[in-house]
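Risk mitigation, structural track. In case the binding assays with pyridoxal-5'-phosphate fail to produce interpretable data, a predicted complex structure has been prepared as a fallback.
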Amino acid sequence: MKLLSDTLDRVKPSPTIAVTNKAQELKAAGHDVIGLGAGEPDFDTPQHIKDAAVVAIAMGKTKYTAVDGIKELKEAVCAKFKRDNKLSYEPNQVSVSSGGKQILYNALMATLNEGDEVVIPAPYWVSYPDMVLLVGGTPVIAQASVQTNYKLTADQLEAAITPNTKWFIFNSPSNPTGAGYTWDELKELTDVLMRHPHVWVMSDDMYEFLAYDGFKFCTPAEVEPRLYDRTLTTNGVSKAYAMTGWRIGYAAGPAELIAAMRKVQSQSTSNPCTISQWAAVEALNGQHDFIADNNEIFVRRRNLVVDMLNAAEGISCPVPEGAFYVYPSISGVIGKTSAGGTKIENDEIFANALLEETGVAVVFGAAFGLSPNFRVSYATSDEALKEACARIQTFCASMTD
Ligand SMILES: Cc1ncc(COP(=O)(O)O)c(C=O)c1O
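Fallback model:
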């Protein structure tokens, strides 16, 4: 009997983690490497949130809690949805997990049967298709294009839906493109969903607060209230509050779905870290001024990166509305040969050659389902970004036909 399960053959390890590992290996071997692969803010968790965790420890709040979150955090989540998204939920409609990733996994695990399809717009966050495969569902990729700044159109969504579609996963602002849907753009998609009442909506709002240039965030159940009964709105404290390591994500939706997700969690991980939950209560209920300060830094970095990448030969980079990623197209360098002698046949070869010849680590577009592109995370210092983009410019300028 073989050791490993057949399920494991269906999924691949995260390509973003693979890039980070390769960059670390090269660094350890003494190479001058600049990593633009990380999916987390370089800021520290705000002090008042850390203090709340210290108080929780001092007060002995260190035991098991209710499986899907303490009452205080569920109430804070309800208040957040009301305040920011005009959505009304009761605590029994709220689930708290060890990160946004576990929330999504629980929801898919709790609902997918063999043959059930999940429509995922590409470019997508790397984990969506593999999570669907892991729990036995079928990912159906709906390709967006650079012409619409990587946003899915109504026709593209309509074409992807079949009688077997169970979920549509929506993510705005997006990882990997940073693209954010306006109210009108999202309304076009929710109009399609209204014509298909068997399709549920999983909205991944993880980058809600990382939006720039006055972009107004909106979420499907807010834009089309008639979707409320078949929408799971997910979010978390990881990105906006610089709390990636604390592992707290949350969601709100129909009580029956939330109860099913609780059942999955009760037989896998039980409650998310108690101390982190108390820190998350402070994050959601406490002051939020630091988000605007952080966003000022992010927008400056975004502009720097977009300008420098657009100045690189053969690269074209749209200006995204949010998150901390840009997703430039490299169609202008495909077929050329790098100074180190590598023929750039696709974006994976481009990213490998870039790392080996210049020490800049980025994630290739095929990992996110749309090529030829690469993803840059600009959640790092201005100096590192300037140096990395200058190296990318030199790398492209020295290519030959
Ligand atoms: C779009 C998106 N959703 C969810 C997550 C998961 O966040 P967490 O770290 O809270 O599990 C990420 C993290 O990279 C993400 O980019």
